[in-house]
């Protein structure tokens, strides 16, 4: 289990932290008794009522609360030069949360092996910014100029993401764009304002079919598009309370949109896997494609075909 430093006084003030693990994950809490009391910490993690809203909530699964003074008693014999030696944080920093599995197991290896250097990656519907953070941290050492942009229409997204990115040292490589992705002209204007063509665009548990269709025609050649989202079962049903069936992909919907080269389209399908989510076993599709053919190439080929036809 990784060891992650959280600032308790900030949490006790009612702020949330994106570093906290999901509520079904067991973990231990080590607290500094000079900073806070056992009672305060225990109330924070085990209360079944939200202090901010009064609504009922699931408490975290804390196994033990341990005072740091019992683990690290003050030692007068420590030599001063040990105390002064510089602390070099591990990179990437340990984390109690997990990025989306498609992002970590498919997208990251692909991005690390792209032939051209990566400059801009977009996360559509980025939420709390964890996948943005993960990719920034993971790509930074091989590519210091990479920028991962989280796009979301909710102000709370930036409010949660920015402190996480700052704490984990990726503020210079991560940015947030407050944008309603249902407004395609605004999205196009944003794309046109970017200093470089984008290399990758992905969405995790965010479905916006008009936008995806627009991207399938307009992303630049070489660009990767990836989606991890709920899909109906093979018999066409989706027997879960959440999300509603209107927010679930139908069978073959993404392949129909991102047509592959063999079928006269522009895309190469790199992955199209059905996987189960770790919560309740809903099926997700991990769909990853790369644009192989551009608009101009198609136009050139059409002209060449036409000219060839004239000669015969
Ligand atoms: C289910 S959450 C997923 C968040 C994140 N990708 C993740 O996997 O944790 C969907 C996100 O999409 C955002 N969203 C919904 N509609 C949007 C829209 N029209 N434009 C931009 N973001 C939107 C929501 O604010 C939310 O943060």
UniProtKB/TrEMBL annotation:
SUPFAM superfamilies: S-adenosyl-L-methionine-dependent methyltransferases. This is Methyltransferase domain-containing protein. The lineage of its organism: Eukaryota, Sar, Stramenopiles, Ochrophyta, Bolidophyceae.
